[in-house]
Each structure stands twice: as C-alpha cells, then as structure tokens.
Amino acid sequence: MASYITNVIPRTLALTVFLYIVAKPRYRLYLISRFLNMFGFGSLELTSSANTVQLSLKAGNKKVQFADQENITLRQLVDSVVPPVRLNPLLSSGHLQTLYVSLGKGPSAKIHYKRRLFVSDNTTYPGSFTTDWVVPAPSTPEPRDTSLPPRTHNFAEEEFTTFTTSEPTKPLLIVLHGLSGGSHEQYVRHAIQPLTATGGFDAVVINSRGCCYSKLTSSKLFNARSTWDLRQFVKWIRSTWPERRLFAIGFSLGANILCNYLGEEGADCELEAGILVGNPWNLDVSNAILCNSFIGLHVYQRGLAAGLKKLFERHVDVIKQNPDIDVELVRSAKYLYQWD
C-alpha cells in the first residue's frame, strides 16, 4: 500500500495533469473522473430516454407511461434507490475488479444448495439440465460431495417431493449465470445472498447444460438462443405452484438468454419482471469490440475461450458424437471468436 501511495499515485497524477492540459475540453471531465476513481470516488451514469416507452394496455387502445401506483417512473425509482458509488482505491476499474474476483478474492457468500436434475421435454434439443435451489445451512455439517460444487448436495426423492408439495409464500427468483459458469460463481452467490437472507425471496439457479459439475447428456451445449430449458422450468414451476410470484435475473450470456426468452414469450410470459445484468445485447458487436483492444483480445477473449475449452474437455466424449464438431479444431482455438 505504501508503494502504491508513494509511486503509483504521483505518477498517475502527473500523467493526468499532462493529459488534462493537452486534451480537448470534452475529454477533461472524463480524465478527472478516472483519477478520482483511484480514491474510491466512483461515478455512476444513468441513461434513459426523456420520454420513456408507453405501454399498451391489453384492454382497449389506451397507452400509459410506465409508473407505479404513486405515479413514480422507473427512472425516478432508480434515482431514489441507487446509492452513491464508493470504489476500493485499489480496484478502481472494471478490469481490476474482474481480475480480482476471477482469482477467487474478496468476501465469500456461503450459499447452500440442493440440486435437482430435469430431463428436457424438447424433442429438437433433447438432454438434461440441473437446477440448484437455495436452502438453509444444515444444522450439522454434511460431508462434501466431491462430484458437486462446495455446499451443494442432491435432493433425495422424498425430500424433493416434500419440497414441491409445500405452499411457499415467498416469491421465487430464477437465476441464469454467465458463460460456462454456474451456481458456484461469486457474482451469483453475492446477488442471491441478500435476497434470500433478508429480502424475502427464495432462489434457484438454472445451470446451463454441462456446467457446474453437471453431466452432459446430449452432444450439444448451449448458446444465447437456448431458451428451451428456461421455458420448460418456468412452466414446471407454474404448474407446481400456480399462485407463486416469479422473477428472473440473468448475468452476461444468461442475461442474453433471458432477454430472448422474454421476447419469445411476449404477453404470455409468466415472469413478473426480468433483470438483465451485463447483457451483450448484440453479440456480433460485442465480439468486435473485444477484438479491437489488447485487453479485450488477449485477456477476455482468451479467458472466455479457456473456460469453454475446459468445459469441452470435460464432456468431449459426449460432444464428439455430434458429426458437425471438429474436435481438433475446437482444441486449437485460442480466442472466443475462434470457438464460435
């Protein structure tokens, strides 16, 4: 820390002052904000239309502004509840924060799960997927099941039957993780913890096929249009608990899958709300942006490809049954775009 104060900060300050002098006026505010980030003074920019989209009611031709019963718009709600940003001075950028979490650093959210396997009812994309349900910590520690992530155990049949015949009063949050991730990811656990501990929610994570220590039972993995497992699961929940309030949140690729699901379901969607976090809205454009910077190409593209290749090798005996897959070509991929 002393070295950071005596070396990094003065040099950064000198560079910032120099760039401020030579930069055009429209870039100076940005330079100031970046320097202040080093001391934890982050900035959060909210972007919205001056006139938000009006919603058409199912009955009649009337259109209404999106607002609650007290006529508070979504933008006003966000402005009122989002707290000031206070960054860690040593983690003043998104790149540093991403690296820090990827190394397994930071406080741990110790979420306990019970896993349930679902067999797909989709004849075009047969297979299976797993769901991890958040449960209370056991009163006595259970031995680790090394075939599953930490603090995760399979539902026993009788246990799951009792679980599904209960009448829960809490709303249920369905969580979709990012590329090659799962319920064990830090960002998933940290998002779930406050909602299930004190927020009055139950939560369940849908693991993409083959992810999070799950067995792959078909020769195809997943992509941004893989909405069929989510659709089947939501229908199952609705038939099991007809009156239960349902919400969903997706991260990164999971956000894109959720976004596609919401669009495909339209007015028939069973979810009351969907939250998209870090959604790569246009995958082609997102890929081009990653390829156009050194850190994007050699850190993120390589890192994402490495995660997928690790997943591929874990299930290669099943995946290679697909005649369209060139195993050696997949193994030679260094970047995410080559994998695609």
Determine the fraction of residues in helical runs and give it as a percent range.
40-55%
SSE topology string: HHEEHHEEEHEHEHEHEHHHHH
Number of helices: 13
What percent strand? 5-15%
InterPro entries: AB_hydrolase_1, AB_hydrolase_4_sf, AB_hydrolase_fold
Family: Belongs to the AB hydrolase superfamily. AB hydrolase 4 family.
Protein name: AB hydrolase-1 domain-containing protein
GO molecular function, one term: acetylesterase activity
Describe the fold and architecture.
Among the domains are: 112-281, Rossmann fold (3-Layer(aba) Sandwich), CATH 3.40.50.1820; 283-340, no CATH class. Helices cover 41% and strands 14% of the residues. Helix 1 runs antiparallel to helix 2 (25-37). It has a seven-stranded mixed beta sheet with strand order 5-3-4-7-6-8-9, sandwiched between helices. The protein has 13 helices and nine strands. The two termini are 42 Å apart. The chain is globular. It has 340 residues and is an alpha/beta fold.
Strands, helices and their partners?
Elements: H1 2-22, H2 25-37, E1 54-56, E2 63-65, H3 74-81, H4 94-102, E3 112-119, E4 128-135, E5 152-154, H5 157-164, E6 172-176, H6 186-197, E7 202-207, H7 228-240, E8 246-251, H8 253-265, E9 273-277, H9 283-291, H10 294-314, H11 316-319, H12 327-332, H13 336-339
Parallel strand pairs: 3-5, 6-7, 6-8, 8-9
Antiparallel strand pairs: 1-2, 3-4, 4-7
